[in-house]
């Protein structure tokens, strides 16, 4: 079943979302720089993913490859020389107008400052030919779902939810991974 909605921000008082709309840093908050990853950033990306407590952790080799081969569609957030967040993604081989966002993670002490939204903006804004952003997010991952709903709303985009992978397709214990299709990402 497909479900299409205009993205609407979630009520922050009822959400434990991992991110908030971007706002200028508050006094005492360190400035975050967002940039393409360098090959050496792969290890830090792996550590941020490991420490997130939510993401499926890939091998450290996979994060090194993402930083090396997919730097155009990945970003890292850096505070005082330390990688504190990342987004990994790739253009679909059969449709390069669609970006698949594989993972978004922000270190716990930097959540709630708009870092994840900045990471997504950086990748999408550097890709003017994009028609849509797609990702998979388990129903149970409330924070990640809230991030994508808020991000899409801020960009004036719509979200369609479609089935993709069911729990029985995974060889190990895993929940369903429905696909979110975010269209109109350049509307803002």
From TrEMBL:
Q: Name one GO molecular function term.
A: diaminobutyrate acetyltransferase activity
- Keyword Transport in the entry? The reply is no
Say if the entry is tagged with keyword Transferase.
yes
Domain N-acetyltransferase residues, every copy = 32-182
- In residue numbers, the region (Disordered) covers 1-36
Pathway in which this enzyme or protein is active: Amine and polyamine biosynthesis; ectoine biosynthesis; L-ectoine from L-aspartate 4-semialdehyde: step 2/3
Q: Per its UniProt entry, which superkingdom is the organism in?
A: Bacteria
- InterPro entries cross-referenced by the UniProt entry: Acyl_CoA_acyltransferase, Ectoine_EctA, GNAT_dom
Pfam families in UniProt: Acetyltransf_1
State which Enzyme Commission number(s) the record gives.
2.3.1.178
Sorted keywords for this record are:
Acyltransferase, Transferase
**Which regions are flagged for Polar residues bias?**
1-17
Q: Which biological processes are named by the entry's GO terms? A: ectoine biosynthetic process
Family, as annotated: Belongs to the acetyltransferase family. EctA subfamily.
Note the NCBIfam families from the entry: ectoine_EctA
Q: What is this protein called in UniProt?
A: L-2,4-diaminobutyric acid acetyltransferase
Tell me what organism the protein belongs to. Cellulosimicrobium cellulans
């Amino acid at each position: 079943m497909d479900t299409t909605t205009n993205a609407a921000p979630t009520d922050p008082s009822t959400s434990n979302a991992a991110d908030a709309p971007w706002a200028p840093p508050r006094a005492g908050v360190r400035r975050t720089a967002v940039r393409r990853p360098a090959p050496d950033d792969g290890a830090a990306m792996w550590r941020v993913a490991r420490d997130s407590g939510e993401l499926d952790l890939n091998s450290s080799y996979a994060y090194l490859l993402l930083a090396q081969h997919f730097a155009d569609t990945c970003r890292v957030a850096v505070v005082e020389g330390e990688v504190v967040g990342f987004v990994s993604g790739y253009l679909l081989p059969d449709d390069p107008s669609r970006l698949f966002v594989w993972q978004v993670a922000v270190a716990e002490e930097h959540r709630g400052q708009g870092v994840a939204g900045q990471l997504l903006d950086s990748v999408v804004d550097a890709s003017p030919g994009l028609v849509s952003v797609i990702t998979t997010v388990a129903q149970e991952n409330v924070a990640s779902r809230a991030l994508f709903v808020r991000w899409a709303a801020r960009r004036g985009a719509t979200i369609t939810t479609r089935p993709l992978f069911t729990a029985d397709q995974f060889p190990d214990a895993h929940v369903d991974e429905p696909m979110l299709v975010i269209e109109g990402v350049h509307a803002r």
